[in-house]
């Protein structure tokens, strides 16, 4: 998986040593509250380790799950995701679309990090030849919708096409 650099951040693969950070991030309701229909808090380190292993398997050279790290401190700030998005329906089959997403630690909110990392991953996706990237947010997730707009994604209104729920949809087309 390609490591990506921005002005302030390094986006690199997660490793087993990141399990404490992953647990700290996903055990917080302020992080989980808009993720999924029925948010569940992570409870122990073994769940974090299992999640990191699952993320590693998602790496196909284009899609992947990046650990976002501050360059000047080495501190982890969050997660940037580029992955197939499941269609609504009982089987949650792949929709054929690729989604971008961001989950940041509250200590790192409000610094523009999600937008900075999102720009880098969108550029990576288009350099790899993806024709389009989508993002979906809970309609109440103002911060995430703001990130979508700041990185140039176009609001497309609400959709029930994904995740068996109603989301705000944003899209970005490959400019190439
Ligand atoms: C969404 C999230 C990644 C944003 O992280 P961030 O690092 O603060 O994002 P940025 O600093 O790049 O940009 C956030 C923007 O939203 C704005 N914002 C933040 N909270 C807001 C709120 N409650 N109401 C309105 N705007 C808000 C900020 O002012 C900023 O816009 P600006 O630069 O024009 O001022 C972060 O809140 C998060 O991880 N939330 C939990 C996980 C989550 O919900 N992820 C998205 C799933 S779709």
3D architecture notes:
- Pfam families: Acetyltransf_3.
- This is GNAT family N-acetyltransferase.
- Residues 9-173 form the N-acetyltransferase domain.
- It comes from Arthrobacter zhaoxinii.
- This protein has 176 residues and is an alpha+beta fold.
- It has one domain (4-173): 3-Layer(aba) Sandwich (Aminopeptidase), CATH 3.40.630.
- It is built from five helices and eight strands.
- The protein has helices at 19-26, 29-32, 45-57, 113-127, 142-150, and strands spanning 4-5, 9-13, 64-70, 76-86, 94-104, 132-137, 154-159, 167-173.
- Strands 1-2-3-4-5 form a five-stranded antiparallel beta sheet, sandwiched between helices. A three-stranded antiparallel beta sheet has the order 6-8-7, covered by helices on one side.
- A hairpin with a 5-residue loop joins strand 3 (64-70) and strand 4 (76-86).
- The longest helix has 15 residues, at 113-127.
- It is globular.
- The two termini are 22 Å apart.
- 32% of the residues are buried.
- The model has no long low-confidence stretch (mean pLDDT 96).
- Coenzyme A binds at residues 31, 34-35, 101-104, 109-115, 137, 141-144, 146-147.
């Amino acid at each position: 998986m390609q490591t990506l650099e921005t002005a302030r951040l390094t986006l690199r693969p997660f490793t087993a040593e990141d399990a404490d950070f992953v647990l700290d991030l996903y055990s917080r309701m302020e992080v989980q509250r808009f993720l999924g229909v029925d948010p569940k808090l992570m409870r122990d380190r073994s769940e974090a380790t299992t999640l990191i292993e699952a993320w590693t398997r998602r790496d196909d050279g284009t899609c992947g799950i990046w650990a976002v790290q501050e360059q000047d401190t080495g501190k982890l700030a969050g997660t940037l995701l580029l992955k197939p998005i499941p269609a609504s329906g009982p089987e949650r089959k792949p929709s054929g679309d690729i989604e971008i997403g961001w989950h940041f630690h509250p200590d790192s909110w409000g610094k523009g990090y999600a937008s900075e990392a999102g720009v880098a991953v969108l550029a990576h996706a288009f350099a790899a030849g993806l024709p389009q990237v989508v993002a979906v947010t809970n309609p109440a997730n103002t911060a995430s919708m703001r990130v979508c707009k700041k990185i140039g994604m176009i609001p497309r209104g609400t959709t029930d096409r994904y995740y068996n729920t109603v989301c705000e949809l944003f899209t970005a087309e490959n400019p190439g």
